[in-house]
């Protein structure tokens, strides 16, 4: 997403995520993109140079957000909260004054954000973009093809029709979007997974272990590798996944050997189950907040 932050405005390329805060990297900054070959002409937002910035309180109100491995101190950002004039979308489609945001001045492990200099939070809390603008619906489509844009739509522009639409209730929560996962089938066979596994609250303590399950695929076999279909069963909705939703080639074999590494993109989490980006790729996903409904539809993201 493209934002214009401050007065005069500074253009920011931001990721969107289901979190409860919008933040941008601010100068001076430790670990931000100005230390890692930014695009030509790129610059970070400087609150000292913006006439529309205001601190959120008389004393600095700080924050610290952890991304990725949440059971460690890695992959975090921190800064201070303030208010600012922010313009969203191309051609400044929407301008919001006194928008509460995070001015991030420390980023640890910046590669996590893939060169972007901000995050737009779309969570349920009052601090998110959704909460501050009072939006009743939004949708997005994550394209598996890196050359295809992944659109995000708000308000009346967020809708879906046609074949393949299925829906499930959104469970009550003040900050996050929860759905009821009833089970998983692989190649038509329902897996014997305890119901407690997908509960909102923790039932069992996590077992420390390794990361993703990976396989070595030689070059001759790469084009003929097949995997069984996987279906996620929700309350009132079945979501059938394709190869690219839960397997991905992550690179060549280390040590100079031949072959590609194929990994199952479903890993362990110590902080609850999440439906990640890979599982949602090439689906149009619609959040109807007023009716507490989540809908999905297989889609060509480039045509939305």
From TrEMBL:
Gene3D superfamilies: Acid Proteases. SUPFAM superfamilies: Acid proteases. GO terms for molecular function: aspartic-type endopeptidase activity. It comes from the Eukaryota. Residues 1-156 form the Xylanase inhibitor N-terminal domain. GO terms for biological process: proteolysis. Keywords: Aspartyl protease, Glycoprotein, Hydrolase, Protease. InterPro entries: Pepsin-like_plant, Peptidase_aspartic_dom_sf, Plant_Aspart_Prot_A1, TAXi_C, TAXi_N. Residues 211-295 form the Xylanase inhibitor C-terminal domain. PANTHER family: OS04G0448300 PROTEIN, OS07G0603500 PROTEIN-RELATED. Belongs to the peptidase A1 family. This is Peptidase A1 domain-containing protein. It comes from Oryza sativa subsp. japonica (Rice).
């Amino acid at each position: 997403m493209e934002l214009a932050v401050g007065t005069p405005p500074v253009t920011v390329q931001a990721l969107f995520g289901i979190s409860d805060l919008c933040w941008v990297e601010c100068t001076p900054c430790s670990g931000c993109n100005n230390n890692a070959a930014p695009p030509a002409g790129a610059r970070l937002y400087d609150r000292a140079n913006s006439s529309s910035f205001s601190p959120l309180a008389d004393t600095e109100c700080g924050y610290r957000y952890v991304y990725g491995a949440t059971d460690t101190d890695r992959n975090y950002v921190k800064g201070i909260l303030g208010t600012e004039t922010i313009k969203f979308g191309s051609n400044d489609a929407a301008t919001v004054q006194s928008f509460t945001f995070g001015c991030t001045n420390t980023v640890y492990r910046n590669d996590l954000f893939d060169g972007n200099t901000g995050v737009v939070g779309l969570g349920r809390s009052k601090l998110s973009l959704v909460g501050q603008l009072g939006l009743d619906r939004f949708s997005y489509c994550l394209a598996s093809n890196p050359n295809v844009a992944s659109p995000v739509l708000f308000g009346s522009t967020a809708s879906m029709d046609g074949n393949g639409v299925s829906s499930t209730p959104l469970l009550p929560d003040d900050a996050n979007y929860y759905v009821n996962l009833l089970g998983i089938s692989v190649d038509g066979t329902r897996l014997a997974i305890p119901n407690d596994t997908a509960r909102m609250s923790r039932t069992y303590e996590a077992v420390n272990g390794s990361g993703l399950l990976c396989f070595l695929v030689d070059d001759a076999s790469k084009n003929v590798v097949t995997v069984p279909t996987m279906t996620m069963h929700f309350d009132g909705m079945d979501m059938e996944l394709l190869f690219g939703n839960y397997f991905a080639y992550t690179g060549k074999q280390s040590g100079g050997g031949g072959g590609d590494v194929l990994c199952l993109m479903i890993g362990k989490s110590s902080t609850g189950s999440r439906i990640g980006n890979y599982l949602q790729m090439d689906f149009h996903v619609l959040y109807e907040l007023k009716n507490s409904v989540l809908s999905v539809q297989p889609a060509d993201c480039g045509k939305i």
